[in-house]
Design a protein that fits this description.
single chain, mainly alpha, 63% helix
Length: 216
């Protein structure tokens, strides 16, 4: 998954930001870095893309080896509360990595954005696979649930990542590296209007992110 996401960021990051994850899009919305309309369209596309991809996989995979299409499930010894907490922290670290590496205020002094994001996703999977299957992406969890008709504890894979994404956005934009925007500027972004430049720094308005993908 990490290598797949790194490839997507490298390939189409300059076009859409390569969110491919409703929790990431929600984090950018919470940080007032994209409009409500754009966020809705992104999330709809992510869910439709996930279901379409899973449907293709379902149709070309022999029934004997199809299984449950890697449906995210909780370990029997893990409660729903524990699982939600795990998903919160897994997505929190992932969103923090994305916000830090995508931040245009770093003036391009980065290594590979694509690899950093891919490694962050891989790290989350290595830690969380045993507990929850490491959802971290509601669209990824939604697609196999739809095709298999199994929604047992499915809410965990929405609530955890959405909360984690929102917390990651607030932590980065208001504590670690504050983005100085007035309330009116934030509202203008949410409504789709382009805000004024503040303190000489260009503000992100939900447009595609310019990524520095030059490896060290």
């Amino acid at each position: 998954d990490g290598l797949a996401l790194a490839t997507l960021v490298q390939s189409v990051g300059h076009i859409s930001g390569a969110h491919v994850n409703p929790a990431v899009t929600f984090a950018f919305l919470v940080g007032s870095q994209m409009s409500l309309l754009r966020a809705f369209c992104y999330m709809a596309a992510q869910l439709l893309g996930a279901v379409a991809g899973a449907a293709v996989l379902y149709s070309v995979t022999p029934p004997a080896v199809r299984g449950n299409l890697a449906l995210n499930t909780l370990h029997p010894a893990v409660s729903v509360g524990q699982a939600t907490t795990v998903e919160i922290f897994l997505t929190l670290q992932f969103v923090l990595c994305i916000f830090a590496t995508y931040d245009e205020r770093r003036n391009g002094q980065l290594g590979s954005v694509a690899l950093a994001v891919g490694f962050s996703l891989a790290l989350g999977h290595l830690f969380g696979m045993y507990y929850t299957g490491a959802g971290m992406n509601p669209a990824r969890s939604f697609a196999p649930a739809i095709l298999t008709g199994n929604f047992t504890n499915h809410w965990v894979y929405w609530v955890g990542p959405i909360i984690g994404g929102g917390l990651g956005s607030l932590l980065y934009d208001f504590l670690l590296f504050p983005r100085l925007k007035s309330i009116s500027e934030r509202l203008s972004v949410l409504k789709g209007a382009k805000p004024d430049v503040s303190n000489g720094q260009p503000e992100v308005t939900g447009e595609p992110v310019e990524l520095n993908t030059q490896a060290l």
